[in-house]
Amino acid sequence: MKEVWHIVNKKKKTHVPFRLSILFFLVFVLFSALILRLGFIQIAYGDEYSREVERTEEVTVNNAVPRGKMYDRNLNIMVDNQPLDAITYTRKQGTTSEEMLETAKKLAKLIDKETDKVTERDKKDYWIMMNPELANKKVTAKERKKVEEGELTDKDLYKLQIERITKEEYDTFSKEELEVLAIYREFSSGYALTPQIVKNKNVTKKEFARVSEHLGSLPGVGITTDWDRSYAYDKTLKSVLGKVSSSEEGLPSESLDYYLARNYSRNDRVGKSYIEAQYEEVLQGQKTKIRNITDKSGDVVDSQVITPGQRGKDLVLTIDIDLQQATEKIIEKYLLANKRMGNTKFLDRAFVVMMDPNTGEVLTMAGKRYVRDSETGKASIEDFALGNITTSYAMGSVVKGATVLTGYQQGAIQPGTVFYDTKLQIKGTKAKGSYKNFGNINDLTALKVSSNVYMFRTAINIGGGTYIPNHSLSINPKAFTTMRNSYAQFGLGARTGIDLPNEMVGFKGTETSPGKLLDLSIGQYDTYTPMQLAQYVSTIANGGYRMKPHIVKEIREPVEDNEELGSVAEEITPTVLNRLPMKDSWIQHVQEGFKKVTMESGGTAYQFFGGKPYTVAGKTGTAEAFYDGPDREKYSEPQETMNLTIVGYSPADKPEVAFAVVVPWAYQRHTTDHHMNKLIASEIMDEYYKLKKERAKQAKAETTTTVKVNHNKDKKT
């Protein structure tokens, strides 16, 4: 028994150490593998993981993208982006002024940098940086003590230094030093981790190559492709298209807070005026949003694109560029021809608006101005399309359609009412009448021959007055409000609502005498803009709907291929601002009177439209006015002039285009007159129908070609 127990016990003693040995062996192998792995990681990835440990901050930045383009209604490019070679600087966090200055000195040896943007303050700041000891001497010990005592701050001391630097001191910089300063100025004006344009205009191929070769020794400096706005039609609609701020300007100071609140950077380029400004949020695009991860020293160790950028959306304008350019040439022709006449010294501008009366789409918005250089005396014609919404004039008899319709509405007259046209003799005033006595006339004839007396009698009735020759005339002053409110329903004296900023309303006279009410009724008291005239005649043309004019037709999505247009993101639909509170029969009656003006013998525009292959309805106007142009200060007394206007639409029975022509200060009274307004109107309508015919012919030819191609394909099949 003892022997058996001894044998079993012996076996147990020998089995336990063997299992432990295996366990220890396995532990040894695992630890060896772990040590080898740690050693490998330390050697191969030690630096990378050290940086991972030292990461301290994630910074999100936005990189700008090119702006959207602009096209005319027929998809001809009008505003594009021209690529530019550019040199940039991206300041890392914690970069010192000394480090930036050192890089600026190196870069100045590789590129030429204009110094015209360097200010006096820039020079003084630079002088302090370059002359620290001399700068310190600009501040007294007593002033430094005040800082310790809390009476002054370090900023106050710096301000004192700036004030005490003399012109002799800061004007000693050489051309090379100023170039360094100009570059340093760009470096310091940008945000940390956000690329700042150093130079993007006139970067030569040599400069671009030299900088590319030395990027390793230029911390923060980079090269890229930037853009600038280019215009396919340099002198056409330039003022309406608007401007974009440069990379040096950045955000306009007057709207800085507005843009910063919308996540813009201070050095972003934005639309400064008109279409570029009005549609900024559309044209700007979606910036590339990047998350930069930096280490403790501010170096970027990783960048991640959070949101890919997308260039701005494109605008398709309502403008017909072919019609626009043809109209501008017509204006220029007659402006130059009439400037040669001896009685037109004040004539310097003319305007034309053409629009679809059914939709409010502006087909042309043309304006030209004759200017003479004050130094050279050389004359030139410049774009003044903006004048269609930013300047206003007494428009004359073109408003008589609104006067007649207001008379119907107020019960002052009714269709067919007859007045005897002879000069009105109101006690204490000069006789007021038409350019000749017409005898008994009704409303349609009054429009046809442009009778002033008919409108005077209508206004007197609106004002509750009674005309008795050689007696005083008394009217209710509320008649001014009645007539102006009615005119506003057509767009006269009210903002048209066009999708452009800074639209002018016009001026309202302040006197409320009976004579001024009569002047108001014939368009010789209040002032209106050419765009208001176009809206007014469109309202009559389409049967009483005041349409909101607009210059943008569509907003298109951007596409990668810059040669193509993307899908429609938004279509600008027609907007009715109001409907005339008048009977359809009344509006149709005035339309009939407008047709008599142009299509019936004896009408004031029949000579210019009577023989056309198309029909037109319209109204002419001549207003006695006073010159209030750029040279008015030269004259001690007000200078009397005549404004010429005409409005109309075509075809007369089914309008598809309306127009307004305005020629301010066309000639002076008691001198030879001219018909520049009617000649321009006649030729722009000829051009409209000429283009329409050519396009119809072209479309037919293209359709025929397509049909033939498809037919041949079918035959082969």
Automatic annotation (TrEMBL):
Q: Name one GO biological process term.
A: peptidoglycan biosynthetic process
Q: InterPro entries under this entry? A: Beta-lactam/transpept, Beta-lactam/transpept-like, PBP_dimer, PBP_dimer_sf, PCN-bd_Tpept
Q: What is its EC number?
A: 3.4.16.4
Q: Per the UniProt record, which residue ranges are transmembrane?
A: 20-45
In alphabetical order, the GO MF annotations are: penicillin binding; peptidoglycan L,D-transpeptidase activity; serine-type D-Ala-D-Ala carboxypeptidase activity
Is Transmembrane helix included in the keywords of this UniProt record? yes
- Specify where the region named Disordered lies, as residue ranges: 697-717
Q: In which pathway does it act?
A: Cell wall biogenesis; peptidoglycan biosynthesis
Look up and give the membrane topology term: Single-pass membrane protein
Question: One GO CC term of this entry?
Answer: plasma membrane
* Keywords linked to the UniProt accession: Cell membrane, Cell shape, Cell wall biogenesis/degradation, Membrane, Peptidoglycan synthesis, Transmembrane, Transmembrane helix
Q: Identify the Pfam families for this entry.
A: PBP_dimer, Transpeptidase
Location comes to:
Cell membrane; Membrane
Instruction: Report the protein name in the record.
Output: serine-type D-Ala-D-Ala carboxypeptidase
Q: Please write the reaction equations for the catalytic activity of this protein.
A: Preferential cleavage: (Ac)2-L-Lys-D-Ala-|-D-Ala. Also transpeptidation of peptidyl-alanyl moieties that are N-acyl substituents of D-alanine
Family under the similarity heading = Belongs to the transpeptidase family.
In what residue span(s) does the Penicillin-binding protein dimerisation domain sit? Answer: 64-303
Q: What region holds the Penicillin-binding protein transpeptidase domain? A: 351-686
